[in-house]
Amino acid sequence: MQVDIRNRPSFANLRVQLGAGDRIIAEAGAMATMSSNLEMKTRFNGGFFGGIARRFLGNESIFVNEFSASSPAELVLTQPFPGDMVCTELRGNTLYLQPGAFIACEPGVRMSLGWAGARSWIAGEGLFRLKLSGSGRLWFGAYGAIFDREISGEHIVDSGHLVAYEPTISINVGMAGGIFTSFFSGEGLVTRVRGQGKIYMQSRSFDGLAAWTNSHLM
Amino acid sequence: MGRIAILDRIEHEHEHENRDAEYEKKQHRSESHVLLQRNPAMVMPASRESFQGGVFHASIPGGRSGATLSIARGELIADTISEPSLRFSIPLNQCQIDLGGASNRMVFCRTKEGDLTIFCEEKNFAKELDFQSGGMLAGPLKQLKKGLAADANRFRFWLTLSAVACALLLFVGYFGVLWTAKIAIRALPVSVDEKIGTMAFSGMEMGRKLEANHPASRLVQEIVDKLKPHASIPELKFKVTVVEDKDINAFALPGGQIVVFTGLIKEAKSAEQIAGVLAHEMSHATLRHGIERVSQSLGIVAAIQIMVGDVGGLVALGAQVAQTSILTSYSRAAETEADLEGARMLNAAKIDPKAMADFFEMLKEKMGDLPDAMAWISTHPQHETRVQSIQNHQKKLPVVQYEPLQLDLKAAQDAL
User: Fold this and answer.
1) Nearest CA of chain B to the CA of A27: how many Å?
2) N or C: which end of chain B has fewer CB within 10 A?
3) The whole model's pTM is what?
4) Residues paired with residue B100 on neighbouring β-strands, in sequence order
């Protein structure tokens, strides 16, 4: 199975070329176009209750689609907002994704919903996170460009910009500076990530877009 | 740093020996880790337990991998899950222990140089590490646990504090709104009382109303006219209705609607007694006891409505409250207040307040043989104390020459 990320970074989409016997699991609604010989099966995203939990708590779909090819076929997957996509490969390690970031994965990747905690929620990163483990490639998207950083120690990310991180990283909410600086610098609360591992960030945030739009509605 | 020994498949038979030899060498040279490529079939559980964790090392494609961890011969060993499987190890005495991760429970074991990290989130891993290291790592592990506990405590402290603050804010907010609404109600114009009274009156089920020119109606109206100039709220329009009912009863609605039952007129021994009851009821209206009742039964929603200026909702609510509880609702404090204000009005109108006390006295005597007709008296304060307090109050009032009412009670009673 060959997967290319095209039209990067603004309107990235995945072109998946499946060989006979290849399978790929994608977020419901991500399919833009596909070959007619490709078989699509919809199933609950991790069981009935898991699916429902994922929908309401993790802001992901109740369903995921599994595409399987009996002969070579092509599939294009997209995300609903403009932005980049990246591919990463799991080798028995785990990656946490922010709600809404997941696009597709290979069948060897397991999905589950994990409690992210009140701190993550306060940081504007959601009360739950999607936990991806196992082995195989996975693709996720973001609003704006995606950049990663291999951190060792502490790093500060503005709230709403964190897309994915490894379980070896701890997340804490903090103020950008003192009380005055925090509230008048426009930075407010920030996320302090600490530990060793990789974090993926997006160059735009939905909160930022909402605030900007709001300021033009008056 | 870190010697990497990649053994070829032929040597796998000797892997054990090799590893042992390697171990010996390592002890001498104090090597921090060894990397082996090995046959997965040869995996032998080194410690009693194995754990699922992971490794960070530059030699792994992508720099990281999930791994199966075990502890044996004073070493923490990690076998990567990726294909081909790689083996990494760190001698326990060189482990730099750290705690963290997204769950804050992940144990990290690093080499001094920091180029190799083995980590695990499993519950028993720290315990096993502690046990296998023979207490070597007990210090750092304990310290980490302490830090974690302090962290958790601090979090719990803030959580409790914010929960208490939220509850307090809600509590203060709730009662604050009710209290403010009460004040706001008192500041409302009397016209609101009138609206409530009129609505309640029109919705009430009563006996036949006597004509305004009926001798009984005229008698009552004349008394009210005499008392009216002495009411504490001069702009209140008192309106009296006499209703055919054998009960000895009278009541006042907010805004000055007063209803007198024919039973009361029949039983009265003098026009002054009726004046006493009317003065009491008019006082309820001037003291705005009705609207006070409404504000007491006010829910939070109605309170907010009033505060934002929606009086219509209050009027509807007031009419409802006035209908359902007007006969039984005034508190004892309100009754006593109305007694004293009534006595003041009577005194000012040159009517002896004693007549009011006499009327209670008379009702007390009647009580035995007229249990059903005692509606008015039964909800009122104990009449001994009432009579007493009226008499005491009378002494404080300015001395006036009382004038008997020039009204024909007998004619009114006969017309009923």
Assistant:
1) 25
2) N
3) 0.55
4) B106
